[in-house]
Amino acid sequence: MLDNLVNLSTHERLVEVNKALSSGMFVHVRRMLQQLPPEDIALLLESCPHAERKNIWQLTDSEQQGEILEELNEDARDSILALMDTENLVAATEGMDTDDLAYVLSGLNDSAYQEVLAQMDAQDRHRLEQALGYPEDTAGSVMNTDTITLRPDVTIDVVLRYLRLKGELPEATDALYVVNKHDKLIGEVALATLLTVDTASTVMDVMDNTRKSIPVAMAEIEVAKIFERRDLISAPVVDQNDRLLGRITIDDVVDIIREDADHKMMGMAGMDDDEDTFAPILKSTKRRTIWLTVNLGAALLASSVSNMFEATLSEIATLAVLMTIVPSMGGIAGNQTLALVIRGMAVGHIGDSNARTLIMKEAAIGLLNGLIWALLVAVAVVIWKGDVNIGYVIAGAMFINLSVAGLAGVCIPLIMNKLKIDPALAGGMALTTVTDVVGLFSFLGMATIFLRA
Amino acid sequence: MLDNLVNLSTHERLVEVNKALSSGMFVHVRRMLQQLPPEDIALLLESCPHAERKNIWQLTDSEQQGEILEELNEDARDSILALMDTENLVAATEGMDTDDLAYVLSGLNDSAYQEVLAQMDAQDRHRLEQALGYPEDTAGSVMNTDTITLRPDVTIDVVLRYLRLKGELPEATDALYVVNKHDKLIGEVALATLLTVDTASTVMDVMDNTRKSIPVAMAEIEVAKIFERRDLISAPVVDQNDRLLGRITIDDVVDIIREDADHKMMGMAGMDDDEDTFAPILKSTKRRTIWLTVNLGAALLASSVSNMFEATLSEIATLAVLMTIVPSMGGIAGNQTLALVIRGMAVGHIGDSNARTLIMKEAAIGLLNGLIWALLVAVAVVIWKGDVNIGYVIAGAMFINLSVAGLAGVCIPLIMNKLKIDPALAGGMALTTVTDVVGLFSFLGMATIFLRA
């Protein structure tokens, strides 16, 4: 069993570890964990409730604790940090890459952070303070400073001898950077180039000076777009004077892409993407309150629209039965457009130059959808309720609401974007509020005009 | 202006290109496009409606057309393929990487595909048929076959001389693979290793034999998880006998991750992730029909629940005004849980071993939410409507619906997963149907029992 733990899936491992834990075989669990790479232990920790998490953490190898911390998501990291004292933490973070160190320590409260800082060696402290000097979510905050630089006038032969003397390259190095005497970046030489060109040529001869460098203040999401579009593995980061500051590697970019995707998906449901799958009940409940409060406001707004028509509703109860159909269809149609526009903005398809075209297109789809569904729903309702007049009313309301839904689905995210509000977060709620209010108002309003005795 | 086109954003470029197009400056546009890398032209094409897209395509350099096709998303690719004749296409696809070739040609209908195949040279045809032999969305369908292999007994010195003779490495090569005489993969040597170890050592001495290889039949989404977790740049793909077949590189994995994220986000709104942002109106309308049809079914189901209580509704019209609140809150609460569970399943946090824990946790949050919001909504309604009895009824219904919503939010995706239905696609609709039906039934049901005269 022991030998096979690495080949098991996370959940099979969790079963094994839990089995061993509950029968008190701590030594055995410790040996099991020693076999696993830190990223797998991190996943194991994230996959269990806090009580169990604590037990497993205490059985991990102290050598591995730093690497495990790097791999944990924010919520899980914080729950583990709460279990560690300063001394542990300083030991665990020794020699960590700058960006990872910044990530791990950002989970500490101020006093704990100051304590750890005070116990760190001067060089690590300096690197850390520099890294934390860059605003969160910018290129500076995700870059590493472990670059190897070359001068343009040396020969490849010299470079090769230098590297062989060095004996090791920083992780995920695929290129060395060429800087002039002012530390200005002037090009890069891929490892593949070093292995294939004539060794008598100079760095200047073989370097690639067409590659793009990343400004240190660029938003990380823009960095990810450049990596995606250009198929990069690493890219140099420069200051405003083109001086080389560090490099960003694809593994960090993959994390950025994943986090952004999580953020969008969780955000659409009004959830924080850092939310721990197994967070404590009270904490989770509290976190979900904001969105439910916002929705209660929206729901009461919709109710207050219906309330305007209470007299009509008391006269014709069938309206109450049917009044949820039009808002519901509007919400779905609008959300389809919204999803398309949010994706289009994220990929970079949509800008000022074509916003008009897109609005026209989605408005046309809204009108067409309005016609189709007005007809279908009216037929269904007339068959069901045997009342042609209600059929006319629901058809009219459906046409209005689906037309509005198409327009709202494209205009809401465009406007939010201008206002620097994230449409992936707030767009759905805003849209549904519009389609609910318009749907109820048009349906009950027309019913009041045309159906009341 | 010309010189600066590369530095403009996509939308500034689009404005420039459109300006030049509409004033008939075709030669100028052609020169502008020549300056741009293929991935930027692809983005430009995706960012405009079909008529304009056609004009721009006809001005692209035929040399670049193959690379542009590789970069286009499915819908845009298909719209461009429709503009090309067989001869064009054969010329454009010559020498393409196998996985890209398979991607481009998968947009053709059968007869066009056969025509292209017939005109391809024998080697390309063979490679293509092999690539298309692997099921879609598996490691085999995304791998490249351009690996460099080494034998374990040669020295690094020999390898270095061989590479320098070769003069070029395949794109995104970060490691060479070591195979025995039966073509069985036994390890890999990173480029960084080649540059730093003693050149007198043998491949056997310096190779890494601990890295994981990817089975050719593995689902691409699992491949992406392994790359993410292990921070890989490339990985070898093997058949069931561990024979080396090819390699997968991080740029393809980034595409897989992005597509999966798009698929989830668009899928939640009932949209296809291949949907072209600027697809023609009729095509778009047609595509959105399925989801609207499903929703009409769900909306009619909810109405039929209200219909059971028509007598109650005609007696107390206030119920009609308030009846949308309980379903709405249930939908939001349920969707929060749903998003958490879908994310947790995607990351690998959730399996049989902890499904129970998760169900208990979300059920508890549902109960707690139920208590909190029952109280708050009841107070709001009593203040608004001045009727304590309606307050009791809405509190009861809210408690029931939020409790059910928590359970449904965790159980629906778990069950769908067992049934091999994608919960990111169908989960939201199923959940909202449950919370609508339960919300309306409990609210109107209790009102009928307790409020009717």
From TrEMBL, chains A, B:
Q: Which Pfam families match?
A: CBS, MgtE, MgtE_N
Give the originating organism: Motilimonas cestriensis
Point out the signal peptide segment.
Answer: none
Per the record, the major location class is: membrane
Tell me where the transmembrane regions lie.
321-342, 363-384, 390-416, 428-451
Q: Could you tell me what this protein is called?
A: Magnesium transporter MgtE
How the protein assembles, per its UniProt entry? Homodimer.
Explain the purpose of this protein: Acts as a magnesium transporter.
The Swiss-Prot or TrEMBL record describes its family as follows: Belongs to the SLC41A transporter family.
Q: Where in the cell is it found?
A: Cell membrane; Membrane
**Mind listing the UniProt keywords for this protein, alphabetically?**
CBS domain, Cell membrane, Magnesium, Membrane, Metal-binding, Transmembrane, Transmembrane helix, Transport
